[in-house]
Automatic annotation (TrEMBL), chain A:
This is ABC-2 type transport system permease protein. PANTHER family: INTEGRAL MEMBRANE TRANSPORT PROTEIN (PTHR36833:SF1), SLR0610 PROTEIN-RELATED (PTHR36833). The chain crosses the membrane at residues 34-55, 61-85, 120-140, 146-176, 197-218, 238-258. It comes from Desulforamulus aeronauticus DSM 10349. InterPro entries: ABC-2_transporter-like. The keyword Membrane applies. Keywords: Membrane, Transmembrane, Transmembrane helix.
From TrEMBL, chain B:
The keyword Membrane applies. This is ABC-2 type transport system permease protein. Keywords: Membrane, Transmembrane, Transmembrane helix. Coiled coil: none annotated. The chain crosses the membrane at residues 32-53, 122-141, 153-177, 189-207, 214-232, 244-262. It comes from Desulforamulus aeronauticus DSM 10349. It comes from the Bacteria. InterPro entries: ABC-2_transporter-like (IPR010390). The keyword Membrane applies. The lineage of its organism: Bacteria, Bacillati, Bacillota, Clostridia, Eubacteriales. PANTHER family: SLR1174 PROTEIN, SLR1174 PROTEIN-RELATED.
Length: 270, 274
C-alpha cells in the first residue's frame, strides 16, 4: 500500500516535470499567459475601486478590505488551478474515448489524470494575489500575530482543497452526463465570482448554502473576518479557523464522488 | 431591375445563414438554456452588490436604487444577447486552424455572413430565454422602465447600434490572430476595457471625473452604457440624440477599421497559402 503510494507520488512528479517543460517550450505564450491572468484580476480590482469611488463602503467593507478578501480567494485558486484546473475538461476525454488510457496504466486513474497537467499559468494568480495581499496588509496597517499567519496558511490550504474539490466534483459529473466544462463555466465560475464580495450582502439562504453545502465561505470570507479583525452579526469568529478541516472533508467527499462516477464509467469507444 | 434582383438575392442568401443558425441554436437548445443560468447568477451578484452599496442611501449622484436596478437588469439582458453570438475564441480558432481560408473561397462576405449567423442564434436565445425570464424579473422587481413609446424605440435603436459596434470591434480583434499567434495578454486587456468602459456593470456616471472623460473618448460606451442610460431615463432630450450620433460615428469608424483589417488579413492569407 505505502509502496504503491510512494511510487504514485514519484510518478506524479515525473509527469509534472514533463508538463512544465512542455509549457516552457513556448516562452512567449508562457509569459503572456501569466501576464494575462494577472491583468484579468487587476481588472477586477480596478472595477472594485471604481465601484467604491462614489459609495465609499460596501456593507462596512472599505476598498483595501475588499481587495484583501478578493486576493485571498485568488491565492488559493492559484494553487488549486495548478493541480486541478484541467479537471473541468474531463468531458472532452470521455467524449473522444481517450479517457480509457488513464485506466490501463499502472497508476491510480485519479493521480494520473491529475498529473496530466501542471498549469504554470497560475503564476499569474500568485503574481496578482501576493502583490494585492501585501498592499492591503500595509494599507490597512495590519500586524498579524503568529496565530493569524496560521489562519492565513490554513485559508490557502483549505481554499485550495475546497475549490479543487468542487472542480473534481464537477468533472465527476462528466461520468454521468458527459458534460463538465460547460458546468464549470455556467455554475462554478459565476459562483466563484459571487464570493469576491462580502458574504453579508447576499440573502440568508445563500449564506447558509455557501457555509454548509458548498463551503465557499471558508475559502475567503470567514478567514478574512479573523485576519482583518472584523466581526459579523451572524457568524461566530472561530469559524475561520475551520477552513483546513472543512477543506479536507469536502475534498474527500468530492473524491469519493469521482470514484463513484469512475466505477460506472463506460467507454464511449466501441 | 437587375440591381433589385441582385440585392434581393443577396439578402435572401444572408437571411438563409440566419435561418440555419436559428435552427442550429434550436437543436442545441440545452446549451442556450444553461447559459442563462450563468447570466442570472451574475445578475444576482450585481443586484446585491448595488443593493449593498445603496444600503442606507437614498440617491447617489442623482440616481435612485430603482433606476440602478433597472440599469443592471437591462444591462445583463443585453450582455446575454451579445454572448449568444459567435464567441471570439471561435473566430481565433478558425484563423489558427486555417478554416477561415475555406470561408474566403465561398461567394459571400465573411464578416457579413458571421453577422447574419449571429442574428439567428441571438433571435433564438432572445425568444426562448431572455424575453420570458426578463419579463418575469421586470414584473416582479418593478424597476424603472421607459415611460414613452419613443423612449423605448430609441433604446432599441441604440441597443442595435451598440451590438454592431461591439461586433465590429470584436471581429477586428479576432482577426489580429492573423498576425499574432498568441494573443493571451492583449486579449485580457481588451476584455477588461470592454467590460469597464462599456458601462456593462458600473454606469459611467459613477466613475471618477477623469475616468469618465477617458471613457467618453472611447467607442466602448456605445455598447451598453448609452442604450442602458436611455432605458432608465438618465439620458433625455437633446442628450439622447447626441449620444446616438456618437454611436453612429463610432460604428462607422469601427466598421472602417474592420474593413481595413479584413482586407489586410485577406492579403495575408494569400501570401501564406502561396
Amino acid at each position: 500500500m505505502v509502496e504503491s503510494w510512494l511510487r504514485g507520488i514519484s510518478m506524479y512528479f515525473y509527469m509534472v516535470s514533463a508538463s512544465i517543460r512542455a509549457q516552457l517550450q513556448y516562452r512567449y505564450a508562457f509569459i503572456m499567459n501569466i501576464l494575462g491572468w494577472a491583468m484579468t484580476y487587476a481588472g477586477t480590482a480596478i472595477t472594485m475601486w471604481v465601484l467604491l469611488y462614489s459609495f465609499g463602503t460596501l456593507e462596512g467593507w472599505i476598498f483595501w478590505e475588499l481587495i484583501f478578501l478578493f486576493a485571498l480567494a485568488v491565492l488559493s485558486w492559484g494553487v488549486c488551478m495548478i493541480f486541478f484546473f484541467h479537471f473541468r475538461s474531463l468531458d472532452q476525454y470521455i467524449v473522444n474515448g481517450t479517457f480509457d488510457r488513464f485506466l490501463v496504466r499502472p497508476i491510480h486513474p485519479f493521480f494520473h489524470f491529475m498529473a496530466m497537467k501542471f498549469d504554470v499559468g497560475a503564476f499569474g494568480q500568485f503574481l496578482f494575489s501576493i502583490v494585492a495581499v501585501a498592499l492591503s496588509y500595509s494599507h490597512l496597517n495590519l500586524h498579524w500575530q503568529a496565530w493569524q499567519w496560521l489562519v492565513f496558511l490554513g485559508a490557502v490550504w483549505g481554499g485550495t482543497l475546497i475549490q479543487g474539490g468542487l472542480l473534481v466534483a464537477i468533472s465527476a459529473m462528466a461520468f454521468w452526463t458527459t458534460r463538465s466544462e460547460r458546468l464549470y463555466w455556467v455554475v462554478m465560475w459565476p459562483a466563484k465570482n459571487l464570493m469576491n464580495y462580502p458574504l453579508t450582502i447576499y440573502p440568508r439562504v445563500i449564506q447558509l448554502l455557501v457555509i454548509f453545502v458548498l463551503p465557499f465561505a471558508f475559502v475567503n470570507y470567514l478567514p478574512a473576518l479573523l485576519l482583518l479583525g472584523k466581526t459579523s452579526q451572524t457568524m461566530a469568529p472561530f469559524w475561520g479557523f475551520l477552513s483546513p478541516f472543512v477543506g479536507m472533508i469536502f475534498f474527500w467527499l468530492c473524491f469519493r464522488l469521482w470514484m463513484l462516477g469512475l466505477n460506472r464509467y463506460k467507454s464511449a469507444g466501441s | 431591375m437587375i440591381l433589385e434582383v441582385i440585392i434581393l438575392g443577396t439578402f435572401k442568401m444572408y437571411g438563409e445563414f440566419s435561418r440555419k443558425s436559428f435552427q442550429r441554436a434550436a437543436a442545441y437548445r440545452f446549451d442556450a438554456w444553461t447559459r442563462i443560468i450563468g447570466n442570472v447568477m451574475f445578475l444576482f451578484m450585481w443586484g446585491f452588490i448595488w443593493y449593498g452599496l445603496y444600503h442606507g442611501k437614498g440617491e447617489v449622484e442623482g440616481v435612485s436604487f430603482q433606476a440602478m436596478l433597472s440599469y443592471i437588469l437591462i444591462s445583463q439582458a443585453l450582455q446575454g444577447l451579445h454572448g449568444a453570438g459567435t464567441p471570439l475564441w471561435e473566430i481565433q480558432e478558425r484563423v489558427r486552424t486555417g478554416d477561415i481560408a475555406m470561408e474566403m473561397l465561398r461567394p459571400y462576405d465573411y464578416p457579413t455572413r458571421m453577422l447574419f449567423s449571429d442574428f439567428g442564434s441571438i433571435t433564438f436565445y432572445f425568444m426562448t430565454a431572455i424575453v420570458p425570464l426578463y419579463t418575469v424579473l421586470f414584473l416582479v422587481l418593478k424597476p424603472v422602465v421607459p415611460t414613452s413609446f419613443s423612449q423605448g424605440g430609441l433604446f432599441v435603436v441604440s441597443a442595435i447600434l451598440g451590438y454592431l459596434i461591439r461586433y465590429c470591434i470584436e471581429l477586428t480583434f479576432g482577426l489580429f490572430t492573423f498576425w499574432l499567434v498568441e494573443t493571451g495578454g492583449v486579449e485580457d486587456i481588451f476584455y477588461f476595457a470592454i467590460s469597464l468602459f462599456s458601462g456593462s456593470v458600473i454606469p459611467l456616471w459613477f466613475f471618477p471625473g477623469w475616468l469618465e472623460q477617458v471613457a467618453g473618448y472611447l467607442p466602448f460606451q456605445g455598447i451598453f452604457f448609452v442604450p442602458n442610460s436611455i432605458f432608465v431615463g438618465q439620458l433625455t432630450g437633446q442628450a439622447v440624440w447626441d449620444a446616438l450620433l456618437s454611436q453612429v460615428i463610432w460604428l462607422l469608424i469601427c466598421y472602417a477599421i474592420l474593413r481595413f483589417v479584413w482586407a489586410k488579413a485577406s492579403m495575408k492569407i494569400v501570401i501564406q497559402g502561396g
